[in-house]
Amino acid sequence: MIPAAFDYHRPGSVDEAVALLARYGDDAKVLSGGMSLLPVLKLRLGAFGHLIDIGRIPGLEYVKEDGGFLRIGAGTRQATLERNELVRARCQVLADAIPLIADPLVRNRGTIGGNVANGDPGNDQPAIMLALGATLVARGSKGERSIAANQFYKGVYTTALAADEILTEIRIPVPSARSGGAYVKLKRKVGDFAAAAAAVQLTLDAKGAVERAAIALTNAGPTPIDASDAAGSLVGKVPDEKAIAEAAKLAAAKTSPVADRRGSVEYKREMARVMVTRALRKALERAGGR
Amino acid sequence: MAMHKISVTVNGTAHSAEVESRLLLVHFLREALRLTGTHIGCDTSHCGACTVLLDDAPVKSCTVLAVQADGAKVRTVEGLEQGGKLHPVQEGFTEKHGLQCGYCTPGMMMTSVALLERNGNPSEQEIRQAIAGNLCRCTGYVNIVKAVQYAAEKMR
């Protein structure tokens, strides 16, 4: 399969890339690892006159801890993150998810920025951004701005990014002591999108009661689902199985999945409940609560 | 038509070419360079038959543009044999019957080579994880795992 013709640009800096985006507007698309975009072009589900390849721009690939944040360059490849000690030590929910994204060959090319900014509800990292309360940093013609992850996702393939903006960095608040996170995903086979998947991040107080909690779901609606009400039901409680079950039920009620070959609406909603239950148990255990 | 001049080193040989923006790396290898050992399977980045090493990392060449490989080092199955001697991975697939129809084999071997270059002594689990993006419909993977283990031992 051959994509429709387009022109290819390889800017040497973010500023050059932004200028190209400003010039070509909706007819331009950012190419990062290309693992979502190239299949779309090949299957002719989409077409753009200009691809702006940000894959060679220096300074977009890094992972560092700085000022209480884990800062990840948007161009960092999934395979790099998978082997990164800082990610493993500071961000269990992300470390859980990476080996479950696509397959190892795809992870050698695909980037976290692409996964987060693509706007496909099937991507795994958007729900993680919500659960972690991440800040997404974008650069555009008007300069740099920070967007809270819970303000980022507007609809299928629609995000808060303007046509001339590029996601450059992901800032994750480093979880405090007595915190735990987990990502649990149900998929039919390696490489598949989730039938249901849940990201959980929580912090306990000194007595073992939940101080803060966040739950988000992948592929359960047009955008990643922020189930903050469900998470809120846990706050102040030393969570037992009953509290976990209640929170998982509330989270599943927030979903609006569509039926496809991965299952019916009822099945997916039920699996969302099960994934949240498992993720909550795992996160609690990691936080030292059980 | 948007054309771009690219330079790619394939199996140690430098190549320069003018390519269309939309040309895929697998088509560049097979059609421009006539290196047809790299197969096109699903053409949708699922099966891994088209796997080549791009700067030493295994990638699906049906989902990489030829222009993205500009300046890079590419290795294909044709580059494994050196001086008439099979690569230990090729030998392993022969000795352990790591194939039946052979369609997935070039990609499977390139992924295996990359694994063994990173990890000289992989466990069965690590081998199975590494080849998770390469599909084989004949073998059930059992003999492929044995082939990689054979090669690992041979390379030590």
Can you offer a commentary on this structure?
The complex is a heterodimer of chains A (290) and B (156). Chain A has 290 residues and is α+β, with helices and mostly antiparallel strands. Chain A has 3 domains: 7-52, 2-Layer Sandwich (Uridine Diphospho-n-acetylenolpyruvylglucosamine Reductase, domain 2); 63-173, Uridine Diphospho-n-acetylenolpyruvylglucosamine Reductase, domain 3 (2-Layer Sandwich), CATH 3.30.465.10; 179-285, Enolase-like, domain 1 (2-Layer Sandwich). Helix content of chain A is 32%, strand content 25%. Chain A has helices at residues 14-24, 37-42, 78-82, 85-90, 92-97, 104-107, 112-117, 125-132, 228-232, 241-253, 265-287; strands at residues 7-9, 28-31, 50-53, 63-66, 69-73, 135-140, 143-148, 153-155, 158-159, 166-173, 179-186, 196-204, 210-218, 225-226. Chain A has a 5-stranded antiparallel sheet. A 4-stranded antiparallel sheet of chain A has the order 11-12-13-14. A 3-stranded parallel sheet of chain A has the order 1-3-2, with helices on one face. In chain A, helix 10 (241-253) crosses helix 11 (265-287). Chain A is globular and about 55 Å long. Chain A starts with 6 loop residues before the first strand and ends with a helix. The model of chain A has no long low-confidence stretch (mean pLDDT 97). Chain B is an alpha+beta fold and 156 residues long. Chain B folds into 2 domains: 3-79, Beta-grasp domain (Ubiquitin-like (UB roll)); 88-155, [2Fe-2S]-binding domain (DNA polymerase, domain 1). Chain B contains 5 helices and 5 strands, in the order E-E-H-E-E-E-H-H-H-H. A 5-stranded mixed sheet of chain B has the order 2-1-5-3-4, covered by helices on one side. In chain B, helix 2 crosses helix 5. The N and C termini of chain B lie far apart (50 Å). In chain B, 51% of the residues are buried. The interface between A and B is medium-sized, with 30 and 32 residues.
